[in-house]
């Protein structure tokens, strides 16, 4: 067979052009030399429009996310690994084992191929490290100015074994609320990287795949009721969602909620509350009180949960308030923000 | 954080609160007003009111500059953004206030307006230098803490000879707010004042002497942190118990009697007093606000652009006027928490997290709940 | 909005501009409203400006007063 392309992609100086999304040779080359080369697996190698997946021994769980973060590269990560981790986590917090990902790209005309290659490499690395396979995808190109570099949508499929039932409506009065680590890292890392507020900090995004942490947790505390990762809107939004879904109240202990010193300082300077900031590698766990110690031990035994803590409890409250007992012993409500404190952070 | 964390020490806070509880006279009430948005925020954020004995009532006065900004002024900014194609810059909270037709400045972006959130007036100045072909307008709000920065931005604009930068000035003055509260309030309404922290670093503690003298109310200037506020409350309790009406300065680490001379001079160079100005919730107050001096007219957005002013009254059911004066509490407003919430604020007190109603929405409602003890890990 | 925090001046890269540090977060602020600020001073930062120097001696004096108030009388306070 004659080779399809006369010259390889110029990954150093080249840029995305409209032809890369047109379905012809240029697009085929982009897929072959960039995406398939990096993701390289038996499903992509089939070369079909969809992936034929093996049977699975449990219920299916599916989740999807669009990623529109700006800037594309930030301390601790990039839009690529963020997308992979984010969807893995959405599947994991259903109690399921993430197996396959689909990734669709909307590329902006003019995006340097060097950047796209770095993003794709980052996705490949993240997926392999997590033991998850990117089995199918899609590429479109839009005119310059219509997408901030690239938008990535990832859809994940996982397997939920029998006997695991986690969901936002399951919390009950008396349950313990746990948090796997410090709040606000991703939010502050993104803000600093935007350079619009004129501050510098060394805070790194906490973006990480949490399914290993979740698996350990569920083995130690199989009666876990709710799992969620507090992304956009922060822990405040997540806890309010859960309180309403379960029709309960939640009381938190401010002194127990970890926040890195630098994150706290940035929040003071900018007038932000760490509870409102996005996280990309943290887990909120709600489990029966009797399993709280076992859950905590399992979280702390895992590299992503070393700073896990018991941060509060679920109470009966028909108003579904989320309350905070402050360090001083006073009380306030944790409301979720109507509008986003910071746009475009994940 | 040095010089912050030490002033948040929980054990000391409890000890101070216990001391206050010991010294209050159970036969009377102590109605103490603070009028510093930062104080309102600090009290609700730390749940300070929960530590105080029931004899003490904390009242949130008009210390939130976003809250006292009239809707009509935001409408002017919206006009600039939507009809005059300017780059409209302001602080975060200002961009979220619903004005006429419930449109916010941030919401105007969806209609094509170029609205930018800035952290400092110097950011707006920088934008003007980067975009010489666009008109950049800075919507300036704030009391005397925030006014000197705007003055410096204008002085720099003058030095640079910028032709595309202007300010829509809504700076207001703290003494005027205090006069308005005291002029109308009956003697029984307020007992003492917690003086604003950072306004006082600029205007100095001496600025409050007239109030203590003329109205016979003690003023204690307090720092920003919980221990500062608690110490100030203790000092006020002691003054009231002894029948004293003095100005005391608790925030000695940042406030001097004369204030910040250089900041005051910058303000005086650039700004002059308006005869009067509309304050949302308080009505029109005399000598209460600033505008640019004639020498700086070319930087005055009100003169550069055709911006007629149309006052917009608040909803009939809105009780902000009474709440700002300490005559009513947020929960006594008919629409509090129902028609008027932080997501859909009807009146000025709900508009920003520093407003009395927003603070109560977040903090006060929690007091009705029963807290269960949390088992330590 | 009234937000103002004390931060440490760690450098003065240009006249009238300070680099301040608050627990590892760094910010450039204008010194146009103050005189004679030096590296090692604490300044109160508000909307990109240093608004006032923190009088460290007064700060320590206030803390000492507060601690004395806290220690007095109530041994069971801790």
> What's the overall geometry of chain B?
globular
Report strand % of chain B. 5-15%
- Name the CATH homologous superfamily of the largest domain in chain A: PurM-like C-terminal domain
Per DSSP, the total helix count of chain B is 14
* Helicity of chain A, as a percent range: 25-40%
> Unreliable runs of chain B, pLDDT <50, ≥5 residues?
369-377
**CATH architecture type of the largest domain in chain A:** Alpha-Beta Complex
Average the pLDDT over all residues of chain B and give the rounded result: 90
Give the helices and strands of chain A as they follow along the chain.
HHEEEHEHEEEHEHEHEHEHEEE
CATH fold-level topology of the largest domain in chain A: Phosphoribosyl-aminoimidazole Synthetase, Chain A, domain 2
Compute the number of strand runs of chain A: 14
Descriptive key words:
heterotrimer; B: 2 domains; globular; C: 78 residues; alpha+beta; SH3 type barrels; five-stranded antiparallel beta sheet; 21% helix; elongated
Short account of what is shown:
Chain A has helices at 25-39, 42-45, 79-92, 113-130, 185-194, 211-220, 234-246, 261-270, 292-300; strands at residues 59-67, 73-74, 77-78, 97-108, 133-142, 150-160, 176-179, 199-200, 226-228, 249-253, 284-287, 309-315, 322-325, 331-333. With 346 residues, chain A is of the alpha+beta class. Chain B starts with 9 loop residues before the first helix and ends in a 15-residue tail after the last helix.
Describe this structure in words.
The complex is a heterotrimer of chains A (346), B (377) and C (78). Chain A is α+β, with helices and mostly antiparallel strands. Chain A is built from nine helices and 14 strands. Chain A folds into two domains: 143 residues, 60s Ribosomal Protein L30, Chain: A (2-Layer Sandwich), CATH 3.30.1330.10; 158 residues, Alpha-Beta Complex (Phosphoribosyl-aminoimidazole Synthetase, Chain A, domain 2). Chain A has a seven-stranded mixed beta sheet. Chain A has a four-stranded mixed beta sheet with strand order 1-6-4-5. In chain A, strands 2-3 form a two-stranded antiparallel ribbon. The longest helix of chain A is centred in the middle third of the chain and has 18 residues. In chain A, 54% of the residues are buried. Chain B has 377 residues and is an alpha/beta fold. Chain B folds into two domains: 306 residues, HypD, alpha/beta domain 2 (Rossmann fold), CATH 3.40.50.11740; 45 residues, no CATH class. Helices cover 35% and strands 15% of the residues of chain B. Chain B is built from 14 helices and 13 strands. The longest helix of chain B has 17 residues. Chain B is globular and about 65 Å long. Chain C has one domain: SH3 type barrels. The radius of gyration of chain C is 16 Å and the shape is elongated. Chain C starts with a strand and ends in a 7-residue tail after the last helix. The C terminus of chain C is likely disordered. The chains are: A alpha+beta (346), B alpha/beta (377), C alpha+beta (78). At the B-C interface, α1, α2, α4, α5 and α7 of B face β1, β4, β5 and α1 of C.
């Amino acid at each position: 067979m004659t080779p399809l392309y006369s010259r390889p992609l110029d990954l150093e100086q080249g840029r995305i052009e409209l032809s890369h999304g047109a379905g012809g040779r240029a697009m085929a080359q982009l897929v072959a030399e960039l995406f398939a080369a990096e993701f390289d697996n038996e499903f992509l190698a089939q070369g079909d429009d969809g992936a034929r997946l093996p049977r699975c021994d449990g219920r299916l769980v599916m989740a999807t996310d669009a990623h529109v973060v700006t800037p594309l590269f930030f301390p601790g990560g990039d839009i690529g690994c963020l997308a992979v981790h984010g969807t893995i986590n959405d599947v994991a917090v259903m109690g399921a084992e993430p197996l396959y990902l689909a990734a669709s790209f909307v590329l902006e005309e003019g995006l340097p191929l060097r950047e796209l290659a770095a993003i794709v490499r980052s996705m490949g690395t993240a997926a392999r490290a997590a033991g998850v396979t990117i089995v199918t995808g899609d590429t479109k190109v839009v005119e310059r100015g219509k997408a901030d570099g690239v938008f990535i949508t990832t859809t994940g499929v996982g397997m939920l074994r029998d006997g695991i039932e986690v969901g936002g409506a399951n919390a009950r009065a008396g349950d313990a609320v746990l948090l796997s680590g410090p709040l606000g890292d991703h939010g502050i890392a993104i803000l600093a990287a935007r350079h619009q507020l004129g501050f510098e900090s060394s805070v790194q995004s906490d973006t990480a795949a949490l399914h290993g942490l979740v698996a350990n947790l569920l083995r130690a505390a199989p009666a876990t009721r709710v799992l969620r990762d507090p992304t956009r809107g922060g822990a405040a939004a997540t806890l309010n969602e859960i309180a309403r879904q379960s029709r309960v109240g939640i009381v938190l202990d401010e002194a127990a909620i970890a926040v890195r010193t630098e994150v706290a300082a940035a929040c003071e300077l900018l007038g932000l509350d760490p509870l409102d900031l996005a996280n990309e590698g943290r887990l909120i766990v709600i489990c029966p009180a009797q399993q709280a110690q076992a859950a905590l031990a399992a979280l702390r035994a895992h590299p992503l949960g070393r700073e896990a803590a018991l941060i509060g409890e679920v109470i009966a409250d028909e108003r579904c308030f989320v309350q905070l007992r402050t360090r001083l012993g006073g009380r306030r409500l944790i409301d979720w923000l109507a509008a986003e404190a910071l746009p475009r952070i994940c | 954080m040095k010089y912050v964390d030490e002033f948040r020490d929980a054990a000391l806070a409890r000890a101070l609160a216990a001391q206050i509880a010991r010294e209050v006279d159970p036969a009377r009430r102590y109605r103490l007003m603070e009028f510093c948005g930062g104080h309102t925020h600090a009290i609700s954020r730390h749940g300070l009111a929960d530590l105080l004995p029931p004899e003490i009532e904390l009242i949130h006065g008009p210390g939130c500059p976003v809250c006292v900004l009239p809707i009509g002024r935001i409408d002017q900014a919206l006009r600039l953004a939507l009809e005059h194609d300017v780059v409209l810059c302001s602080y975060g909270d200002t961009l979220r206030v619903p004005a006429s037709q419930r449109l916010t400045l941030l919401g105007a972006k969806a209609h094509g307006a170029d609205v930018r959130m800035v952290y400092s007036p110097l950011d707006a100045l920088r934008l003007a230098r980067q975009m010489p072909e666009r008109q950049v307008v800075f919507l300036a709000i704030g009391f005397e803490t925030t006014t000197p920065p705007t003055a410096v931005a204008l002085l720099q604009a003058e030095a640079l000879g910028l032709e595309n930068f202007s300010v829509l000035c809504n700076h207001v003055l703290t003494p005027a707010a205090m006069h308005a509260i005291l002029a109308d309030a009956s003697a029984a309404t307020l007992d003492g004042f917690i003086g604003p922290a950072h306004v006082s670093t600029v205007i100095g503690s001496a600025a409050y002497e007239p109030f203590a003298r003329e109205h016979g109310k003690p003023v204690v200037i307090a720092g920003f942190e919980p221990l500062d506020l608690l110490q100030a409350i203790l000092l006020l309790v002691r003054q009231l118990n002894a029948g004293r009406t003095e100005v005391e300065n608790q925030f000695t680490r940042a406030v001097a009697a004369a204030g910040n001379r250089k900041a005051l001079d910058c303000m005086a160079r650039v700004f002059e007093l308006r005869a009067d100005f509309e304050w949302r919730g308080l009505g029109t107050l005399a000598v209460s606000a600033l505008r640019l001096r004639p020498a700086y007219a070319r930087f005055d957005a009100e003169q550069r652009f055709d911006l007629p002013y149309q006052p917009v009254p608040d909803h009939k059911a809105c009780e902000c006027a009474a709440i700002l004066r300490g005559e009513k509490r947020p929960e006594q407003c008919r629409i509090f928490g129902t028609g008027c919430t932080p997501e859909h604020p009807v009146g000025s007190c709900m508009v920003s997290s520093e407003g009395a109603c927003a603070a109560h929405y977040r903090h006060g409602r929690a007091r009705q709940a029963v807290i269960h003890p949390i088992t330590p890990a | 909005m009234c937000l103002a925090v004390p931060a440490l001046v760690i450098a003065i890269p240009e006249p009238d501009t300070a680099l301040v540090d608050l627990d590892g977060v760094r910010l450039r602020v204008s010194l146009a409203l103050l005189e004679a600020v030096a590296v090692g001073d604490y300044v109160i930062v508000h909307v990109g400006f240093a608004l006032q120097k923190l009088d460290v001696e007064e700060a320590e004096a206030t803390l000492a007063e507060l601690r004395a108030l806290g220690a007095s009388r109530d041994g069971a306070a801790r």
